[in-house]
Amino acid sequence: MENNENTISIQQVNQNISDNSNILVETSWAGSATLKQALAVHQVVIIHFLRDLGCIYCRGLVDRLYKTAQQKQNLPPLLFVHFDSVSNGQAFFQEHFPNSLHIADTEQKLYQLFGIQKITWASFLNFKMWLTGISFFLKGYFPKKQTDPSILSGTFLLKEGSVIWKHLARYPGDDTLFPSITSR
Q1: Could you read off the pLDDT tens digit of each residue along the chain, which spans 184 residues?
Q2: CA–CA separation, 60 vs 43, rounded Å?
Q3: Main-chain dihedrals φ then ψ at residue 157, nearest 5 degrees
Q4: 116 and 78 Cβ atoms separated by less than 8 Å
C-alpha cells in the first residue's frame, strides 16, 4: 500500500466506489451497466486505468500484460479502463489484448473516483520514464494521435468489489509489475 500524502487512500477509493455505485459506465461485455455491476464481473479483479490509447507506454504495457496473462494462469482477470469510445477501445484491444474486458470512461469519472493523477513537469526529469520510452520506441512503438497525454495510469486489485491494493503511476511508464499483485 502506498503512503503518499498526494495520492488518494484505499479507504477513500472504496468510499468513492460505494457513493457512486449506480453511475452508468459503458462496458465491452454488457453495454451500459452500473459501476457496481461492472466491478462485480469477477470476485477478484485487477483494474488497470490506461493512459491515452495512442501513447507508446500504454500500447507497450498492454502488449506486455497480454504476454504475462498468457503465461501466468494464476493472474486474476484484468479489467481495463480507458477514456476513448467503446468502438475505439474494441479496435485497440482487438490488436493488443483480444477478448479483454474494458470500460470506456469518456468523461473520466472513474479516473477521478479512483484518484488517477495527471503528469507533472517534474515527471519529465525521471530517468526511468525516458528509459522505458526509449525501450518501447526501439521495439517499434511510435506515438499515435492522442486525446489527453497528461493522464497517468493506475492499477487496483479488487476483492468482492473493494480495493485491497493500489499503485498510482508517478510518471509515464511507472506501471506496476504484475508479479507483485499475484503474490497478494
Answers
A1: 333 444 678 888 889 888 988 888 888 887 888 888 888 878 888 898 998 887 777 788 888 888 888 887 777 888 999 998 888 899 999 999 998 889 999 999 999 999 998 887 776 676 676 677 677 777 877 677 766 778 888 999 898 888 998 888 887 777 765 555 655 5
A2: 28
A3: -105, 120
A4: no
Q: Are the C-beta atoms of 92 and 63 separated by less than 8 Å?
A: no
Question: Maximum distance among all alpha carbons in the chain?
Answer: 44
The cell for 114 is 479512483
- Determine how β-strand 78-82 pairs with β-strand 101-104: parallel
What does the alpha-carbon distance between residue 169 and residue 116 come to, in Å, rounded to a whole number?
8
Q: Residue 47 corresponds to which amino acid?
A: I
Name the residue with cell 500504454.
58
Answer for the pair 10, 1: CB distance below 8 angstroms, yes or no.
yes
Please state, in angstroms and rounded to a whole number, the distance separating the CA atoms of residues 156 and 152: 14
Cell numbers standing for residue 2: 502506498
| Residue of 110, 113, 104 lying closest to 147 (CA atoms) | 104
Classify each residue of 20-52 as buried b or exposed e, where b means 16 or more C-beta atoms within 10 Å of its C-beta: eeeeebbbbeeeebebeebbeeeeebbbbbbbb
Rounded to two decimals, the pTM is: 0.82
